[in-house]
Amino acid sequence: MLVLPISAFLGIFVTRLIIDNYGQASYAQYMLLVGIGALIPFADLGISASIMNAVAAAKDPRTDSHLRGTLITCMRILAGSATVLASIAVIVTVSGSWSALLGEGLTGDTGNLAAGLCVLTLALAMFVGFGQRILIGLGLNFVAILVGGLQTPIVLTVLFCAVKLQIDIGPYVAVVSYGAIVIGGVIMVTLANRRVRPIIGEAFRGAWHPRTVRGDRVFDTAWPMLLQMIALPLAMQSNRLILSHSSSVDQLATYSLASQMYNPIYSVSVAASMALWPVFARARSHGESQVSPRRLSIMFAGLATLAVTAMSIASGFLADVASNGTIALPIGLIVAFSLLMVAQAAKSPLGMYMTDAKGLRYQAYMVVLMLPVNVGISILLAVRLGAVGPVIGSIVGVVVFQLIANWWYVGRAERRLRASAEAAAV
Asked: What pLDDT does 350 receive?
């Protein structure tokens, strides 16, 4: 709640510098390219769930053999996946095909090169991403947030220096953003290693010897997590891509500014709920009692309602400051983003409770069902309503296939636990 609003506030200055010095088209491209990372988080093949569950369940993470085996397998997967992603980036860039994939939001030849550099940097960031997962599993999510909060200040610093030195980095600001993610990832690996030394070093050495050193099984939780990581970004993060293809650059810029203003509220709810993952996983592993996820869901929804109300009141002023008066947010878009943020916040604690293999499978099936409904509504309404259309599609998808569906699942799980406890007491 401290770091993310600061990042959002600094993000307004990033927006202002880009629009004032490089134009609205450069800003639209920047937000489009930043969204690539959200579209392909599945490149790690879902191993984040395996790492966090293994760390949370370990009595001593420094010596736990299951955690060591899990890290060995995950490092091998990350190395292979990062190599494939980097290779695809090179092929698409050389062929000049990024415009065909990302739409009219890219600007000329620089847009093609910028997209390729973003994906290459993303591949590197993905390889060092396991440090964040270890910190979360250790209950140190706040440390990961603090380090992640460095991203916007780094981008702002580089951008400010470029403007002062009259260096035209307008098309490549998104590359700087991904570079900041790499820096944060390296820092988090270093901090995680200090907490669990020497197990990361042992796992890294073992990962290079697949014939003699075997890793542990991870795909019982990895594959449903992978399925979610494929379907969720396509459903939730494709809105800019849909607008880039189905609407105008002005509508893309309007949506991007509103998203930039409201998404920190979602980020706060995700950060808070992510801290619950190791709590629920540890309680599940040790057979301990735990707080009701449905009560937490109501609390998260209430806090999100207060946050979106404050943001909506200030939205006109913030949009004017960020865009220098060139972008105005319509009331329909403000209301739609407010409803989406509340729904996203309400479903977050429920999802963190459902992080065992069975719960992850259920979530994966629901997200797969959600994908065609969400995208279909978003495409249909983007043509007719512009920026607000994809947001409405996201609201329908989240409420039906995540909030209501997960609420029902958690209710059944809690009733089973109570029945088991009562039977054991008898």
From this structure: 95
Place of tokens 């249909």: 380
Q: Which domain holds residue 288?
A: 219-426
Q: What is the pTM of this model?
A: 0.74
Which one of 217, 252, 283 terminates a domain? 217
Q: Is the dihedral of CA 164, 168, 174, 175 positive or negative?
A: negative
DSSP 3-state of 157: helix
The CA angle 328-329-334, to the nearest 5 degrees, is: 165
Do 192 and 223 fall into the same domain? no
Whether the bond into 5 is cis, omega within 30 of 0: no
**390 close to 239: Cβ distance less than 8 angstroms:** yes
pLDDT tier at 41, thresholds 50, 70, 90: low
What's the pLDDT tens digit per position in 100-141?
888 777 777 788 899 999 999 999 998 888 999 999 889 898
Give pLDDT, residue 356: 86
Cβ-based neighbour number of residue 76 at 10 Å: 18
Last residue of a domain, one of 183, 217, 251: 217
Distance separating alpha carbons of residues 42 and 47, to the nearest angstrom: 9
Grouping H, G, I as helix, E, B as strand and the rest as coil, residue 130 is: helix
Cβ 373 vs Cβ 314: under 8 Å: no
